Amino acid sequence: MELSADFVQGLQLLGNNAVVDDVSFDLLLQLSLDSILSPDSLEGSPPSAKLNNAQLKLGVASFITFLLEATKLDRDGTSLRHFLEELHFSEERLDKIIHVFEENKTNIRHVLASISSTYPHITDVRWRVEYYIKNNQLHKIGQPQYQIQLQTQKSGDGDVFQFSCSQEQLQDMVGKLKEACKSLERAHQVKPS
């Protein structure tokens, strides 16, 4: 597992018994886990360790990053133990981290799965043609307007997008969609060597 130098430094700081006592370590670990699983429920003051605010933030951010990366990469307790042993964590702290990770891995995975940057899927298209004779300024138009309604779905939630366009705009949109489909087909046919 690769973490940035800052996060490795933060983990080393948390592994140092002289800087972070056991009670503060437990509280920081729990605070990190709580911020992943239920960020809205965080209240109260941080533990009183021998850390300034910058070190405290770095420590919590390091724990959060460590737990998220380990879950994302589907690491097991043994590989995490090896990684943390290189950072000179005590055996007791190693056991606590591994226990917390293994106990909450499924919940963290659900949180990661709920974070999505995908676009909505188009599930239905409806359209109709309206022939406008005049517009609001009483100018003669005499051309059709297409009313398009797209129904989309993203993570179980549905939305409806409506717009109107001229025949030229609709032809342009259809052409771009066909071009995008061909581009996807070409990308799918290219096999990595």
UniProtKB/TrEMBL annotation:
UniProt-listed PROSITE patterns: COMM
Lineage: superkingdom: Eukaryota
InterPro entries per UniProt: COMM, COMMD3
Gene Ontology terms: biological process: sodium ion transport
Stretches assigned to the COMM domain: 121-188
Family per record: Belongs to the COMM domain-containing protein 3 family.
Protein name per Swiss-Prot or TrEMBL: COMM domain-containing protein 3
Source organism (scientific name): Paralvinella palmiformis
